[in-house]
Amino acid sequence: MHVELTINDSPRALFVDESESLATALRRAGHTEVLCGCDGGTCGVSKVFVDDEVRMACGMDALEADGSTIRTVQSLGTQGALHPIQQAFVDHHAVQCGFCIPGMIIEAAALLAENPDPSPETVRAAIDDTLCRCTGYQKPVRAILDAAERLRTQPEAADGVIADE
Amino acid sequence: MNNSADSSAEAAEVHPLEWDEPEDNRKPPEDRSSVSNRVEKVDDTKLVTGEARYTADFVHDFRSVGRVSVVRSEIPHGRVLDIDRSTAESIDGVWAVLTPDSDVVPESLYTSAGQSYPEPSPWDMHVLHEHVRYVGDPVCAVVAADQPTADRAAETIDVSYEEYDHVVDPDAAFSSDAPQLFEPDEVANEIVGHDYDRNRMAHIEGELGSVSSAFERDDCVVHETEWETIRQSHANVEKHTALAYADEDDRHVLITSTQVPHHTRRQLAHLFDIPIRDIRVKKPRVGGGFGGKQAMVIEPIALACSLAVDRPVLYEASRSEEFGAMRSRHPMRVRARSAVTEDGSIEALELYALSNTGAYGSHGMTVAGNVGSKPLPLYSKVPNVRFEADIVHTNTPQTGAMRGYGAPQGTLALEGHLDVVARDLDLDPIAFRQAHYMEVGDLDEIAGMMGGEGAERRIRSCGLDECIERGKAAIGWDEIEQPDDPDCHRGVGMALSAQGTGVAGDELGGAQLMLNEDGSFHLHVGGVDIGTGADTAFVQIAAETLGCSPEKIVIKSSDTDVTPFDYGAYASSTTYISGMAVRKAAAKVRERLFEWASRMLDAPIGSLIAADDRIHHETTGESVTFEDIGYESMYGEDDREHIMATGSHSTDESPPPFAAQFADVTVDTTTGEFTVNQLVVAVDCGVAINPGMAEGQIEGANHMSYELAVSDGIAVGADGAATVESFDEYGLPSATETPPIEAILVETHEPTGPYGAKSVAEVPTNTVPPALSDAIADAVGVRIRSMPITPATLRDKLTE
Known about the structure:
Shape of chain A: globular
Strand content of chain A: 5-15%
Order of helices and strands of chain A: EEHEEEHHHH
CATH architecture of the largest domain in chain A: Orthogonal Bundle
CATH superfamily of the largest domain in chain A: [2Fe-2S]-binding domain
Shape of chain B: globular
Number of strands of chain A: 5
Number of helices of chain B: 19
Helix content of chain B: 25-40%
Largest sheet of chain A: 5 strands, mixed
Structural class of chain B: alpha+beta
CATH class of the largest domain in chain A: Mainly Alpha
CATH architecture of the largest domain in chain B: 2-Layer Sandwich
Oligomer: heterodimer
Number of helices of chain A: 5
Number of domains of chain B: 3
């Protein structure tokens, strides 16, 4: 079986097994930025955009994604040109082991596209299903609030996926 | 413990009051160029873009990688009689099925504890077990072309057992009538006080003065309280993962998610009878450790499987294996007793711990030792102190090292006890503690009273007073306002804690620093960054010493073929031990830079200073850049030299960092529901090398400590098996479930540490359970002593 996907703007055809998750298929295709910590849609680190909706890639069958547009954290920024959300995580020392961070950044991007000026409580609610063992969430929440301000004052800094929409 | 004058004199000599500190190790804040700056974490840009590589990502380097599924015991105690693997072996894509008698599976006993050699843990494990001791013991391993095939094949394997009686409760296990987990020939490297007839793997005790005499005094009242802690999961989001393969020189390589690459190399070499030089352990980015990876947990299975199929093999534990068959925090029952005079003078303190080490004994004795040796020294003014622990086996999942390492269990008992006594005697809980806690200049003998693990130590830095003052102000200790709802009551509680910085006299770290011709440097460190930011701290320490910007230093760490030796990331040692090795290497390189600059500037070395990527003449203002020196030293006409140096550090010192924890809670007396309004924790970690990273360590540790107070942890059933299989069933507090945490850094200067640093990452793990218990007692007069604190337990207590 195979599925046709658009991954970070590149069309791809992937061979997949019937029961395998989207995360497994993406990782086998080299997208190791999609991490998996739980074996099935509970920890939130595998979050990606599937047709602009945030999904846990490890909790979704690859076949279900056939024909969809996938955007991973790599669609946001590069090491040389970080997206403001990524930059805020760096500036606030909100990253420790980093394993949950791609999922958290995807969730933050979705939140800020919807609500450019969220309260701390709204940010916490948005990342509530992304588990982090390192940070106690204090600095990630601050980073997302700061990223919101950066995006409000300098929207042009985010010329990635969110600003296009 | 021998408390004679002779031993005190000897200890004073080992730990003199004066410390021979290099002059430039102590810098006022304004003179620091890199240390105590919020330097960007060196691996952050690759982490936020998803380009960083964790162990499982390395499978893409190979054309074909076998995947492993492990068959684990389904009974709590028994012996394997037969393994029917015929169906599994007939499945397409199955490459091998390993059983305890397979040639590639070592026969010898070992411990998974990643500790120094010989490990202070009993060798009581096999890679695959015939005698199984808990639901989850590994019996058989399947290697297949892909994970679904391996998992499917593993399910077809039929293991038949002779079942034995089992025991789950530690009190019941500690008896000659209980089912016995170990026969005498099933353990080597036994630990002091072992008594396997009663399932005891170790017994430890130590005393200073005479506690029993104080308990008998007429002017003292003896107070006794008992406390209990949960079996906590590390819940590292990256599961235990190891990739094993043979390289082109037919040497054995493991890329693995570990805190202890060098210990793992040695332990694999001994277990598999392979020369140490023929094993390479590489640590890539690690998705959290917290002690759970201070152990060689899955590497032996990965290596055995790779040997069996002669191909690369990846073993990635499942999340259910993480909860049921990796490691966890030792659940404990701790009794605290004190003798206190009417006016609040503590004449004696005693802790007794019954520690449940589960089916095996890794870290069992040393963790239990820290129940006493970390919290008790805080009260160094108390003249009579005693600690005792029994560490017993049960047919339950394995325990091991976990952040705090016994100190959280001891801190709950000691700090909770002191609060109970203070309230009984109507004393201010803070003043009561302050009258007895340590101060600069003290010779702490309590830390050393059990010998071995902790030694006596001189206290050279202590910011406890300031921690308390700033913590009190932040929580609003004296100005708590009660809610309008008459059923709701608000209260505040606090707790203090001390930890160590490395294992006194049992640490080693190495570093190597090399100059490139463009004035940049390569820094190779054995030390292990598991997400803590250690690599960044090493770079900052090197940059401070050299007088260069951190961006000029390229760091490589934790590859046993390439980097120097290191004991690994545990015991809060990394910045202090490995960081000092970096400082030493950098100081030697700076000497060579001065020597070359002296020649190039024709100026005496004494007139030179290093700053801003240059060597400057102090008075003339002339300078040469590190790049000038790089090209001149490598390509110059006259002399040539590759400017490089190594540093190695080990010490008998282990200075305590300190924490003052405050908790603010509102309790609804009708329901038992409670809201933690705020956690504040002020920490003295000496000079924070990177305040941003240090705050992150404190906040994360306090989150873990909060979980220890309010979560069920890994519950076990009547058969001793973990009843938690997924994050959905485990109480890891989410973002909305975590109270706001305020971390306060209180700077002191620790002269034995690099630029005044001591440890930070463990001490805030110890303090939320007692502080929250105190806050609830303050709010509603009810004391919870058995963790977790839940609305149900609180409601039951309120209606008693």
